[in-house]
Design goal:
mainly alpha; single chain
C-alpha cells in the first residue's frame, strides 16, 4: 500500500523530529548545544521507510522552530510530536512505531553527546519528548 502524505503532514513530521533535537539542544546546558544538535540530527538521517524519506526531503521547510525560549519551542514541537504519531497511526500504522523509535534514537544520541552523560535538564527533556510521543 502506497501512502501519500500532504505537504503539511510532511512538515509536521519534520517539525516534530528536528524540533525534538532542537529541544535537546536547548536543554544541553553545560554540554555543547552544537554537539547535541549534530548528534541528534545525524541519528535522524538513519531513518528508513516512509519516515526516512520524509525526513530526508530537503525541498520543503522544517516549519517554524523559532522561539525566544525552550518553552516557546516546546509549545510548537511537543504537540507536533503527538500529532505526528496520531497522523501516522491513521494513515500508515506501521510507520507510527518507526517514527517514534527514530525520534527516540535521535534523542538518545543527542543526550549522549555531552561529556559525562546527560544531566538533569536533558533527562527531563527526554521525558517530555517521550511523553508527547506516547500521548497520541
Amino acid at each position: 500500500m502506497s501512502v501519500t502524505l500532504s505537504d503539511q503532514d510532511k512538515t509536521t513530521l519534520r517539525t516534530a523530529a528536528y524540533g525534538a533535537v532542537s529541544l535537546m539542544s536547548a536543554a544541553a546546558g553545560a554540554a555543547s548545544p552544537h554537539k547535541v544538535a549534530t548528534q541528534g540530527s545525524i541519528a535522524l538521517t538513519s531513518a528508513t521507510g516512509l519516515v526516512g524519506h520524509v525526513l530526508a526531503e530537503r525541498s520543503s521547510p522544517v516549519g517554524d522552530l523559532g522561539g525566544k525560549s525552550a518553552a516557546e519551542l516546546a509549545d510548537r514541537v511537543l504537540p507536533a510530536l503527538t500529532a505526528s504519531v496520531a497522523l501516522l497511526r491513521k494513515q500508515a500504522p506501521g510507520e507510527a512505531d518507526n517514527f517514534r523509535s527514530t525520534v527516540l534514537v535521535a534523542v538518545e544520541a543527542a543526550a549522549g553527546a555531552g561529556k559525562g552523560g546527560p544531566g538533569p535538564a536533558l533527562d527531563a527533556m527526554t521525558r517530555k519528548i517521550t511523553g508527547a510521543l506516547d500521548a497520541a
